[in-house]
């Protein structure tokens, strides 16, 4: 889309291995697998009993999406943030989740590729921008 030009990829780049294979970490493959968000609360199955006096929300966050389009993140720290909510009320628990709507997530989603470099994932700069435009794009002008 736009001015982004696809560069010629080698066969290894077209069919990248999952980084758990590359780094010899098959034991963590399940935690670095992309999941869909669940915006509407769903009921959970509870084994045992939750006391009625425990009420509230338990929030967690972590990576939930490890690829954008045909591009994969190179490190498990780089996955797009997924927020989890467990709502506990009257001995029942519901669950829902959604991706953090960060600038990085929105830009990656709009362009269907990894646009911004992350901890372990370097991206190619937009070939349509010169050095100065790429430098300035890292900063925000102060509001008046």
Automatic annotation (TrEMBL):
| GO CC term (a single one) | mitochondrion
Q: Which family does it belong to?
A: Belongs to the carotenoid oxygenase family.
Named cofactor requirement(s): Fe(2+)
Pfam families the record matches: RPE65 (PF03055)
What biological processes does GO assign it?
A: carotene catabolic process; retinal metabolic process
Span-the-membrane segments of this chain are none
- Write down the species: Xiphophorus couchianus (Monterrey platyfish)
Keyword field contains Metal-binding? yes
Q: What is the name attached to this protein's record?
A: Beta-carotene 15, 15-dioxygenase 2, like
Alphabetically ordered keywords of this record: Iron, Metal-binding
């Amino acid at each position: 889309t736009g001015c982004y030009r696809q560069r010629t990829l080698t066969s290894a780049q077209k069919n990248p291995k999952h980084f758990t294979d590359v780094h010899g970490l098959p034991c963590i493959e399940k935690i670095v697998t992309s999941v869909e968000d669940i915006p509407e609360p769903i009921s959970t199955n509870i084994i045992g009993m939750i006391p009625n006096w425990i009420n509230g929300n338990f929030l967690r966050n972590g990576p939930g999406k490890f690829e954008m389009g045909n591009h994969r993140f190179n490190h498990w720290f780089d996955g797009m943030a997924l927020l989890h909510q467990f709502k506990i009320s009257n001995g029942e628990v519901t669950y829902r989740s959604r991706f953090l709507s960060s600038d990085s997530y929105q830009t990656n989603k709009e362009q269907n590729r990894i646009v911004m470099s992350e901890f372990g994932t370097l991206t190619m700069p937009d070939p349509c921008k010169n050095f100065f435009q790429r430098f300035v794009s890292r900063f925000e002008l102060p509001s008046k």
